[in-house]
Design goal:
The structure is a homodimer of 190-residue chains. The first copy, chain A, has nine helices and no strands. Chain A binds a DNA duplex (30 and 30 nucleotides) through helix 3.
Chain lengths: 190, 190
Amino acid sequence: MSPRKTTSQELTREIILQKARTTFVEKGFQQVSMRSIAKLLGCSHGAIYYHFKNKAELFYAIVEEDFSKLNYWLEETIQGSEDDSTKLYNVLIRFIEFGLNHQSQYEIMFLVRNTEVDSLSQEAANYSYQKFAQAVQSLAKKKLEIIDVWSAFIALHGFVSHYRGYVDNFEEAKLAAKSHVNFILKGLNG
Amino acid sequence: MSPRKTTSQELTREIILQKARTTFVEKGFQQVSMRSIAKLLGCSHGAIYYHFKNKAELFYAIVEEDFSKLNYWLEETIQGSEDDSTKLYNVLIRFIEFGLNHQSQYEIMFLVRNTEVDSLSQEAANYSYQKFAQAVQSLAKKKLEIIDVWSAFIALHGFVSHYRGYVDNFEEAKLAAKSHVNFILKGLNG
DNA sequence: ATTGTTATTAACCAATGGTCAATAAAAGGA
DNA sequence: TCCTTTTATTGACCATTGGTTAATAACAAT
């Protein structure tokens, strides 16, 4: 009989995002229901729909934050003080690192082909790829074919796309990642 | 008031598989419901559960057939009469070709991390990789590191995993596929 | 005919994503 | 202080989903 909580315990966008993030990261998009998030928040599922249009939009709000983190990270690597070949290596490794440490987000951005989330994520994914391509091209020893940069990206994507679910974080796949990156560098430099 | 149809139109495992296959391939695992298959078959969804334990098992029965096709195809390529480097190229291309022409099946085998289908698909996926690794190793010019074979596989997987959903079949991504395979060959031979 | 097996139905269950009228708390005047 | 408007929340409701199961009709064997 209390259709509204007192100010102190009111539901904010930020509080929802915070709780939803950890839950999505733990269990993945499909396995999390709006009702389960509501239960964790101690509110009704209807309340969440007041703050977010639907499940996809709630999720996307989370994803967006993380992707700007990735872009920033790539940018930072380019600006760094190491020599170019080290930087290039780092860009590739860090892409994998990001993918495996933000599996749920990576899934939505680069894997899910669900019409619900598609139009939103497509744009951001493209932007992130542009950042990546730009980084690789500016750091490579020789002038690269754009198609080879694309292949390098696809090969990285394959790594993340496979190891996601098998490992919990980047650390667990670090060795394999390093070796895979060296394989890709052979493709780029050869 | 007719809890059973006459013999001529009886529901068999084969008829279900046939109809379900085309539907799954068209729309993907998640987008197809047991009820929608039943509607196409002109029976109730309960009837399907008589023939298959659940949705995952029905789908897996379909996947299994297609994967034995892939294994056979790889085998056939190794046995062929071309020279080894052509054969190697073909093995890589054909893996992609299979992936893009059987997207729904590929998804379940190599992408889905859903506990419902997992234990079943894991085995078959492993077996297919063994076939692939064996083929690549026997066809390469020089003795390959197993980790490099693995990287090649992961890189191919990335290609399929990305283009699935964007293209309807292999033909539409053929050019990109050829270029990607050449990229991978540089990694293997360099 | 009787019996047992096989196939099919339809009613049922618990979840899900999503909508919406009702309503109470808060905020802002007068 | 009282009245009004805005804002946030609830919970009942809807359609759809995957899955279960008792009832029963069709068939085959005896």
